Predict the structure.
Amino acid sequence: MHKLVCLRFCPVKSRHRQSLYVVLSVTFSTMLNPVPESAPDFRRPDLLRLDYDTYRALPAIANSDLSRLRDALDGRPPRPQTGSNAGALSFGTAFHTALLEPDDYIAGQPGLNDTLVWWLVEGVKMNSQLTDLLEQGASEMSVLFTEPQTDTLCKLRADLVVDQPEQPFTVIDFKTTMARDAEHFLWQCSAYDYDRQAAFYTDALRAERFLLVGVQKVEPFGVFTIEVSEQMLAEGRQKYQRLLCLLKAPATAPPYRAEAVQAAVDALDPGRNEEMR
């Protein structure tokens, strides 16, 4: 079963200072389990080419919204919500721009080491497998979808999506990291809920493979590529479904966290929260 949702946006300013109208006609799958591509009704959600501000304005729940809800559940202080042009550009965002949208990279931002950013980019491109994926894939693609278990309208913005004949449909996410080695980065994937993001994206796109690429931002500047396992996906799926259920019914939170969780739910503005790098 599918449903068609059309969204119209008024003129907005993109990072390229262009005014534009965006009309989205998106088919949302209401099925979670993977379906063979040979099945007559198989269709992945559309990949949308949106500028970042337009993506952020979409009234849907992002993985970062789930992180804020998790923080409230764990008793952590609320994360600051900043606009795309507020403050110094984060190192992770700068790295992603240099790697995935190099023409948009702006040098000389306060607090950024441009030489280090491009050094990390070169390190990634020294890996022939990753270079092939970068050449074949579509970067910074946005997706709208309805999560079927909770009927929640959600969104995601994938670093890289590779959809090539005779190859598994692959989603790649790049993370700058202070991990000591590949084993330490694998531990971070669970501790920092990268497994939740992987499951969230994999289920939405019916991806056949999800790669997490850790890029050390300190010496020896290693690059760690991890293909997310079925066990990691199962654990991540439990995480995001639990949080989406909590979003729907915040009163089910433990009594000692009820006030913080309700405040986090009330504060959520799905159209203005950015994906965390």
